[in-house]
Amino acid sequence: MASTSTESxxxxxxxxxxxxxxxxxxxxxxxxEIVNELxxxxxxxxxxxxxxxxxxxxxxxxxxxxxQLKLLKVNxxxxxxxxxxxxxxxxxxxxxxxxxxxxxxxxxxxxxHALQDRGYKIVSVYRFKSQIGLGKAPTPTVALxxxxxxxxxxxxxxxxxxxxxxxxxxxxxxxxxQRLGHTSNHCREEKRCxxxxxxxxxxxxxxxxxxxxxxxxxxxxxxxxxPKFLRMKQVTRPTTTEQDRxxxxxxxxHLSYSQALGEPSPPINHETEILKGKVEALQTxxxxxxxxxAKVKTLEAKVGKLDxxxxxxxxxxxxxxxxxxxxxxKLDRLVLLLAKLLPDxxxxxxxxSQPEETRPVATGTxxxxxxxxxxxxxxxxxxxxxxxxxxxxxxxxxxxxxxxxELTQLHRLTSNNTIFCGxxxxxxxxWDTRSTHPNHSGRILANxxxxxxxxxxxxxxxxxxxxxxxxxxxxxxxxAIMSPHLAATAELKRGPFIGSDHLPIHIQxxxxxxxxxxxPPSWNFSEANWENWNTSIRQTIESTDFHRxxxxxxxxxxxxxxLHSANTANNIKMKKTSNQMKAEPQRVWWTEECKKAVAQSxxxxxxxxxxxxxxxxxxxxxxxxxIQKKKTIIKAKKxxxxxxxxSLNPKSSPTKTWAFAKALTRGTTPPDLFSSPIKDPxxxxxxxxxxxxxxxxxxxxxxxxxxxPDNPRFEQ
Length: 716
Known about the structure:
Among the domains are: about 1-90, RRM (RNA recognition motif) domain (Alpha-Beta Plaits, 2-Layer Sandwich); about 360-515, Deoxyribonuclease I, Chain A; about 525-575, no CATH class; about 590-650. It is an alpha+beta fold.
């Protein structure tokens, strides 16, 4: 019996590979060779004592203490091919305890270093946290892990703390199904709400009645008073006394959590009856407290109504203040315009009577520059005059790298009717009061707008042109800089969300467009008579000195005149360009599923408001809808591409594929490639083949029937 008792205390050994691989990846034959090799050297292990641990290590139960000590010294197995490390389980080589009433100001690192300086063989320190609302707050309880038996009491910064054995609570799948007995890493069920146990989107702010998914009680699944939770907790409760307390907790029986739940409840002793009487007394006191609480809730309802009234008043004041700021902003812009147009005028005479410290800054600051800028000129009517208006699109990729000389030169070369707009990536308090740290681009732009008199900032303060995808906070980095007379009357508004983190900006000017830059004119060949056209050109050229003159400009004028006269005589007319702006054609892959997915994604994003408590859960829903939208669009594109590929045949023209590619990427509707057929004069049949059409067109100009006449002019 003594031998059996001694053998039962032998701790098993874990053998871990040093090459980063696990024994689970090996063949069973190779593992058997390793075990036979160890048994030949150390003796036979305990019967059935060899297995693969959960982490992939080799788990061996030695038969004797001497065999255990020798096994701990093994460094190589499998005839020296595999380097290993043999070690005891963490529970056998160390211990975990808890201490209580530790000051909340001490961090885990400070406690760790303080105990280490005292000579304790500390391994780790962890302060427990409790859930308060949507966040977590530290508690006075701290867990300590030693690589030896923990002392019964420790000294921390001169204060004495008694240690208690660390008893881990029952595992619960807190991130997925909320059930007891396993963790989220080993859960295959769907995510459920902690409060009601059902599946829905906003689980953080669930307003449904509480229902435990484990015991069907009227409490959340995380409640510490859950009967099933208490039953499972009883499994890990140690049977120790104050005189003989082990620093490591052991369960009273070797039972699983499911077996513990299936056992009958322990019998009630006399102390339980005493506690029951105390509970009844507490319940009586609780009833009185509830009555008082009902009165307090009535007062809270009245206070809530008062808060609503106060909020309405605050909103009204905010609206008035915003209107005042807008008016003051326009006055300041007008003052700046007059100051630039009339430099000899004293600006103090034009003061808007607003205190200096409260006047909003609507003037001054910024442009941004790119190596390649896009510029468009249109004719507008301004104050009864037709003038060209230059609109230049600007972009600075990096707000910390902006060339001041290049920016200054760009603005000095502009006319008096210029608009600079785009993504400046410039942060400064002049146009965004929330920006407390200006970047390099912002400082350069602010300085430039103060010096230059021919430009003026038109973007109102705190317009919020970009919304951060993670925090959903607005910043103003997209700016519009104009000539002073344009900025004084311009109105800028922020557009709706259309998929990008940069929101569109609508600019309204007090001008009237007179002429639009449109596509070049084209020719209409539908009624052309090519045979007469060719004859007309030849007759016109031969009736002049085209072949006798050696002046290239003279030849050019003769040929152009012949070309225009032949066009007029043979119904070749120039098409009229339409000034009507047409909507962009629908992309070939755009389906109803894509439209629905995009609408759902935008709806979920609009529900994300940083001021609301449920913003985090709404952002999670938005990210899921965004992922679903991308998957739907990719699927639609693949289906459109497969449909196009299936429609191809050996006689298909490459132009058909190019037309589809343009429609897939640019949104252009693919043309009907079988339109505009021509008739073969020999066979009298219509054809759409491009090679045949080219041959027929070439034959219309070939009247030699294969015999070229001699021409002395071309033989010289």
